[in-house]
Design a protein that fits this description.
Blueprint (H helix, E strand, L loop, with lengths): L5 H18 L16 E6 L4 E6 L2 E7 L21 E12 L2 E6 L4 H9 L5 H13 L14 E3 L15 E2 L2 H8 L7 E5 L1
Parallel strand pairs: 1-8, 6-7
Antiparallel strand pairs: 1-2, 2-3, 4-5, 4-8, 5-6
């Protein structure tokens, strides 16, 4: 399906290109792979409910995780309780949250934004609000129909069994402490099915 608003998207892309040129971001693009910030990488396998923290090729620690209520397939839109799949990065660190500590991940990424745009879930401007922060490795817009505020967090002192989040990845409070004090903003996060 081709969207009728291709003219609006073209205008938005021109605005983005001008903004990137003016800000000096052009040429500093991040491809979502390799070390972005610090020596660590986080990889998650949803089917196994497992997360691994790596430092280079060395596995530092393995974690058992809980996912969204609806863990099958990748996140499509806000409220679907699915955990996304793809290449992301830690885009923010919150020392206090409802679930103890929070490592925000860069959902939606460029693939999510493109899918959302093609399906008519987001506008060209909303697509740009995801695209520009991605290039700068900042927090993407979390105010679209695609949803946001997805991350890795603790339990907040609660006892939980099974998949119970609204799309996030949950570990124990002790484990989120371990991660929080090691990873930095920009750390790659790869989520597999």
């Amino acid at each position: 399906m081709i969207r009728a608003s291709s003219a609006a998207r073209s205008v938005a892309l021109c605005v983005v290109a001008l903004a990137l040129t003016a800000s000096g971001v052009v040429g500093q693009q991040w491809d979502g792979s390799g070390p972005a910030s610090g020596p660590y990488e986080i990889e998650i396998w949803k089917g196994r409910r497992e997360m691994v923290l790596r430092e280079g090729a060395r596995v530092v620690r393995r974690f058992q995780v809980a996912l969204g209520y609806n863990p099958e397939r990748s996140k499509q839109f806000q409220g679907d309780s699915r955990t996304p799949e793809g290449r992301y990065y830690v885009c923010e660190k919150r020392p206090q949250s409802s679930f103890y500590r929070f490592l925000g991940i860069s959902y939606p990424n460029l693939d999510d934004a493109e899918r959302g745009y093609v399906k008519g879930l987001i506008s060209a401007n909303e697509w740009a609000d995801i695209f520009v922060p991605y290039l700068r490795r900042e927090v993407p817009s979390w105010r679209t129909a695609l949803g946001g505020r997805v991350g890795i967090h603790g339990l907040g002192g609660r006892y939980r069994v099974g998949d119970w989040t609204h799309g996030c990845i949950a570990v124990s409070d002790e484990e989120i402490d371990f991660l929080y004090h090691r990873v930095s903003v920009g750390t790659p996060v790869i989520i597999n099915e």
